[in-house]
Amino acid sequence: MLLAVGLYVGLVLAPPDAVQGDVQRIMYLHLPFVLIAYLAFAIVFLAGIAYLWKRDEWADVLAHSAAEIGVVFTGLVLVTGSIWGKPTWGVWWTWDARLTTTLLLFFIFVGYLMVRALTEERGRGARYAAIVGIIGALDIPIIHMSVVWWRTLHQPSTFLRAQGPAIAPALMIPLFVNFGAFLVLFLFLLVRRMRLEQARREAEALEALT
Amino acid sequence: MGPWGYIAAAYGIAAVVLLGYHLVMSVRLRAFARRLSALRATAAWMRRAA
User: Fold this and answer.
1) Is the dihedral of CA A122, A126, A128, A132 positive or negative?
2) What is the DSSP letter of A15?
3) Cα–Cα distance between A146 and A140 in angstroms, integer?
4) ipTM of the predicted structure?
5) Quick check: A60 and B42 in contact, CB under 8 A?
6) Distance between CA atoms of residues A137 and A146, nearest Å
7) Closest alpha carbon to A61 in A142, A131, A153, A129
8) A204 interface with B at CB cutoff 8 Å
9) Residues of B (19-48) whose Cβ lies below 8 Å from A
10) Closest residue by Cα to residue A166 from A62, A31, A54
11) Inter-chain contact B3–A210, Cβ cutoff 8 Å?
12) Is residue A101 within 8 Å of A142, Cβ to Cβ?
């Protein structure tokens, strides 16, 4: 329901951008996906620390689930950004600092999932993955600051900047609606993915008994 | 391709990926629920037998 409202607000109600025209509507997906991916990897970072500190199984389940969903959303960030980049910049991809560090984030967390999948003993895999997750999440501030530290084709931050958001309210409201909708979707997917992970671990434990 | 072509591509790909991911997860959840109930029954039977 919220997603349908977000779709309507982004595609119908919001006016076209003065410079970019209608293509800017892709930002109603791209920007919420970025923020959800950051949130997912921040959860991986915190849950990874919690797991290494307390060896809490629940924290490991949370980190694993958030990482997988974060990879899906980061993949979508790269795809929607590329589709927006072609009509706006004239290229599908460029080795710009923001794009490259985001691609690096994607590969780090694909690696995180591979570490889990390829390590035979689950406890060891969880420890290695927690370390990869903590180091990988440190790429997020680098991504955020990349447009300040290096000369980039990607525009500077629109929301998270000292002078306040640089966006007209008519374009900001659809962004917030879509962010809210995707946040709810993220939480829904996270709960389901955690349930699946817990079921998988319970099945493994029962199989070892029987 | 006009601007709406790019918009359709971005929204279409996002919809397919997110719906696909949700669908795969639902199928796996249902499969694990079936496997778990069978395993729990076997474990209970083994406890009774022991």
Assistant:
1) positive
2) P
3) 10
4) 0.88
5) no
6) 15
7) A129
8) no
9) 21-22, 25-26, 28-29, 32-33, 35-36, 39-40, 42-43, 46
10) A31
11) no
12) yes
- Evaluate if pTM is beyond 0.80: yes
pLDDT at A123: 86
What the block records as the tokens of A52 is 């290494």
Is A87's CB within 8 Å of B3's CB?
yes
For helices A139-149 and A97-118, give the axis angle rounded to 10 degrees: 170
Cα angle vertex A163, ends A159, A169, to 5°?
Answer: 50
Whose tokens are 């927690």? That residue is A130
Task: Tell me the average pLDDT across B24-36.
Answer: 92
A16, B4 contact by CB (below 8 A): no
Using CA atoms, how far apart are residues A105 and A88, in angstroms rounded to an integer?
A: 24
In angstroms, the CA A84 to CA B9 distance is 10
Contact residues, chain A, for B38 at CB < 8 Å: none
And the tokens for A201? Answer: 């671990």
pLDDT tens digits for A144-175?
A: 888 888 777 777 777 667 777 777 777 788 88
Q: How far is CA B5 from CA A83, A94, A209, B32, in A?
A: 10, 21, 55, 40
Nearest CA to B1 out of A116, A92, A73, A100 is that of A92
Residues of chain B with Cβ-Cβ distance to A29 below 8 Å are 10-11, 14
Q: Which residues pair with A17 in a beta bridge?
A: A21
Q: Give A93-146 pLDDT, tens digit per residue.
A: 999 999 999 999 999 999 999 999 998 888 889 999 999 999 999 999 999 888
